[in-house]
Structure formats: structure tokens, C-alpha cells
Amino acid sequence: MKNLFEFAEACLHSANIDEKLALTHQAWQALESGELSLISNHPVLPIARVIFPDKPILLAPRNMPKRKLGAPEGVSAFFHAIAHVEFVAIYLAWDIAYRFRGMPAQFYQDWLQIADEEAQHFELIGTHLQAMQMNYGNLPAHSGLWDHAKDTADDLLARLAMVPRCMEARGLDVTPAIISKFKQLGDDASVALLNRILTDEVGHVERGSYWFKFVCEQQGFEAETKYRQLIGQYYQGGKPKGPFNREMRLIAGFSKAELDWLETQEPAL
């Protein structure tokens, strides 16, 4: 029988993009057909061993060139940036499943499903980019997303707070306005693609919220207090700035109290 952690190790420790996508889909299909073992009989390798492809070249977010959606090169650059987010999201989903052992089977099933959906997003964006004469890796990309994984490699609650419940949740805040912009431009293909991604991302953030609350209860923490403390500890600048999409965040498992705290100007704990 195939093993989840062997798949995870192969995906995280290879730079081959096509192989990574194929293995991710194979793992999900094996799970769905009842042919995937979730027994963790493999040691966890350090996060420093994770390998990324040589391209795109990674730059600090502040060094990324600014482009506007109104021009064709701006649209292709935007989708190249989104492709990178989705590509790193495949790693993030695999890494949380790989790195944190001893959780219920549903935890691993959830993150494998998310890895598979992120791989689908990446493939859809890749096709969209090719229609614009662009391939993933042609432009630089920002290095910030994976830094959060490295910062939280030893703390599952911090990982859940910072990745699905902070960085991914930002997509719920900003994507609807971007979709509106593409509607104004009459770009139906981009609208459909972004709507598909947004729908799935609500579910991804919801799973992050669910497991954050689960682990808080397991470890004896009050979830809202712990969330504020972890954001204050790990988020550069204290906490994210709005506006926040309250409606989508509530669906994705945020409490009204958490949203009220995010929207206030007072510093994090």
C-alpha cells in the first residue's frame, strides 16, 4: 500500500514541477480509492531540506516590480504572481501534513485534498499563462510565503495561525475586488479562473480554522486569545491591515471577536 508520508517526502524534496503535480494527484486518487496508508513510519526531515526549482528567481516582496492590470504585460505578470502563490501553496499543504505527526486521520486527508486542489489551481493558471505567451518561471516571484513555513516549522498552532488563517485568508479579502476589475475589463476567462480559486480557498481557510480550534482545545488554549498572541508573535508589523472580508472570513471559521480585533487599530498582544 502507498504511504502518505512517502508521497509528501517525494513532493517536498524534488525540484521537478511536473513530477510534483503528478505525485500530488496520484496521492489524492490513492486516498479516495482506499489505497493510501496514513501510518507515519518515516522520520521528519528538517524543513531546510525542502527543495524548490531554480526558477522563478525569488526576490524580497519589496523588490518585486510593480505592474498594472490595465496593460497585457500587467495581466500576465499578475497571473504569474498568482501561479507562484498556488505553487508554494502545494508545498505548504504537503508540509503541514508531513511535518506534524500524531493528528487524526481527517487532518491528513484534509491537507492532501488541499494540496490536490492547489495543484489543480496551478495547472489552470499555467494554461491561462500559456495563452498569454508566458510560462511559470519567466518572471521573478516573491520569497515571503515559504518564510512563514520555516518560521513555524516546530509549532503546529503557529503554522495554522500564520498560513491558512493569515496569509491565505488575505486572498478572501483582496480577490473579490480583483475579480470586479477583470469583469470591468471584460476578461471572462480570468474572472472564471479567479472565482474557482476563491471558492476553494474559502474551504482551505475553513480547514485551517477548524484544526486551529481543535489543537487549541487539545492543548488547553482559548482559541481567540491564542490566535491574537500568535499573530502578534509571528506577523511582521503586529497584525494584518484591512479591509477584511467579514462575510467570507466568517464562512471560513473566523469568529466575530477575531474579526473585531483584526479591524481595531490597537496593537497585537
Overview of the molecule:
It contains 10 helices and 4 strands, in the order βααββααβαααααα. With 269 residues, the protein is mainly alpha-helical. The protein folds into 2 domains: 1-148; 155-269, no CATH class. The strands form 2 sheets. A two-stranded parallel sheet has the order 1-2. It has a two-stranded parallel ribbon with strand order 3-4. Helix 1 (4-12) packs antiparallel against helix 2 and helix 5 (144-151) packs antiparallel against helix 6. The termini are far apart.
Write the layout of secondary structure elements.
Elements: E1 2-3, H1 4-12, H2 17-32, E2 36-37, E3 58-59, H3 72-99, H4 105-130, E4 141-142, H5 144-151, H6 156-184, H7 188-219, H8 223-234, H9 246-251, H10 256-263
Distance between the termini: 47 Å
Query: Helix and strand succession?
Result: EHHEEHHEHHHHHH
How many domain units? 2
Number of helices: 10
Number of beta-strand segments: 4
Q: What's the overall average pLDDT, rounded? A: 94
Percentage of residues in helical conformation: 55-70%
Outline the low-pLDDT stretches. Answer: none
Percent of residues in β-strands: under 5%
